[in-house]
Amino acid sequence: MQLRYVFRMYPEPGQRGALARAFGCARTVFNDAVRARRDARAAGERYPTSAVLSKTLITEAKARAERAWLAEVSQVVLQQALRDADAAYANFFASLKGERAGARVGEPRFRSRRDARQAVRFTANARWKITGGGRLLLPKIGEVAVKWSRVLPSTPSSVTVVKDAAGRYFASFVIETDPDADTTRMPGTDRTIGIDLGLTLPQTPSGGTPIAVLSDGTKIDSPRFLRRAEKKLKETQQDLARKQKGSKNREKARVKVARAHAKVADARREFLPQALGFARAGGTPIQLSTKLIRENQAVAVEDLAVRGLARTRMAKSVHDAGWSRFTALLAYKAERYGRTFIKIDRFEPTSQVCSTCGHRDVPKPLHVREWTCTACGTVHDRDVNAAKNVKQAAGLAVTACGARVRPGLVPAQREETGSHGIPTGNCAARQHSIQ
After folding, report:
1. Residue 383 falls in the annotated catalytic set
2. Quick one: pLDDT band at residue 95, thresholds 50, 70, 90?
């Protein structure tokens, strides 16, 4: 299984200039490839192959005065830009044919220097390396300082250098994990758990608004990062609106807005894995998703229609809750460590059924947080009862460690490798996987 480790980089001024040239050259080659294929389509000709594009857009282009500056960056960066164009068109055609799952993918567009994210990729043949002093040596860029928070478990197959909208630089490494070693890291257990996700919940004694409730009664609070940062975001965006377009002051204001949004996103990203604040020996936080996978042989959640909810007036709260990322963390960790991850039908009446006797009561409005079963008299907390019903609806049963707990389960889907997240500002880098 491939995972991605991301670390913060601190290039010097000269190195930032070299990286800017690399971003620009890669963007130019990508755009030239898209233009060549659009021209071929308009002329009714076959799309040029990658070999033809490599010859015309890189080798021959360097010999021309208007593209001579392509020689200032590593050849690997330019070749990877062509591979990115190939992958973009492959995804586009697969989406048209219905062979690609998920939302429909549009035709590749031209990249812009104003894009929020700029990236270049160095593969093994670029001869990049990590020096003995802990710096990242990149061809035609030099030795760049990196904030290492952990030791890489194996030799990376590539490194992607990313610059985000806030002007921060990151080194992203692709790591191949050892399945046998991963399996032995998880202790044996026969426990199972259900999780109820929601927004309209009462405040907990800790003062937060829980966004998830476990079948054992644990409630996970959400600090509502976006809501708390709205005033700061409003001020920075108003300041940006007052600046003249194209001015240096407008660019400075744009970076302030990007940093404010990045701070919110980073805080939410770090909260989801560490929501319960559990700690290992030595004080290192354990991710919530890791704790659930470590302690349970099977985990069940509701298959919520997040995209549908995001089109309602609750959209801001839905996005702030981060349900999709939380369930994605559970899914790929379950696959990696040999656990079972189950999503039950979103139309299952988990809030109407008594988890004790199975009696189905009448539908209740959202403000009703406790109710008494008319059949057995059990008093239920609405959300804890729903979490228990999620667990029961998944058909979870206690079995020996390693055995399947429900017949006919579909294995959890593997998370696609990619630069999906950015760590917090000056914090140590984080791994987009297991802690």
Report:
1. yes
2. very high
Task: Give the 3-state secondary structure percentages of the chain, helix then strand then coil, rounded to 5.
Answer: 40, 20, 45
CA distance 337 to 321: 26
Signed CA dihedral, 231, 233, 238, 243: sign only? positive
How far apart CA 234 and CA 242 sit, in angstroms, is: 13
Burial of 29 (C-beta count, 10 Å sphere; 0-12/13-18/19+): buried
Please name the residue that has the structure tokens 């947080």: 369
pTM of the model: 0.75
Mean pLDDT to the nearest integer, 291-310: 81
| Nearest of 82, 252, 65 to residue 166 by alpha carbon | 252
Choosing from 164, 270, 383, 415, the catalytic residue is: 383
**In this structure, are residues 408 and 126 in contact, taking their beta carbons and an 8 Å threshold?**
no
Residue 39 known to be catalytic: no
Instruction: Find the catalytic residue in 302, 320, 335, 415.
Output: 302
Nearest C-alpha neighbor of 404 from the set 358, 341, 352: 341
Residue 332 three-state SS: helix
Using alpha carbons, select from 347, 342, 348 the residue that is nearest to residue 406.
Answer: 342
Cα first-last separation, the chain: 16
Question: What single-letter DSSP state applies at residue 431?
Answer: B
Describe the crossing of helices 248-271 and 225-242 by its angle, rounded to 10 degrees. Answer: 170
Residue 124 to residue 179: CA distance in whole angstroms? 23
Q: Which residue has the tokens 């802990």?
A: 134
Residues in contact with 69: Cβ distance below 8 Å, sequence separation at least 6, in sequence order: 21, 25
Q: Which of 196, 320, 335, 415 is catalytic?
A: 196
Q: Mapping DSSP to helix (H, G, I), strand (E, B) and coil, where does residue 1 land?
A: coil
pLDDT reported for residue 310: 66
CB 417 within 8 A of CB 174: yes
The tens digit of pLDDT for each residue in 240-287 reads 999 999 899 998 999 898 888 888 777 766 655 444 444 333 333 456
Measure the CA–CA gap between 316 and 16, rounded to whole angstroms. Answer: 36
Task: For residue range 377-406, list pLDDT tens digits in order.
Answer: 888 888 888 889 998 888 753 333 333 334
Q: Which band of pLDDT confidence, cut at 50, 70 and 90, is reported for residue 217?
A: confident
Is 361 catalytic? The answer is no
The separation between CA 275 and the C-alpha centre of its own chain, rounded to angstroms, equals: 17
DSSP state, residue 110: -
Nearest partner of 73 among 12, 138, 125, judged by Cα: 138
How many Cβ atoms from other residues are within 10 Å of residue 349's Cβ? Answer: 13
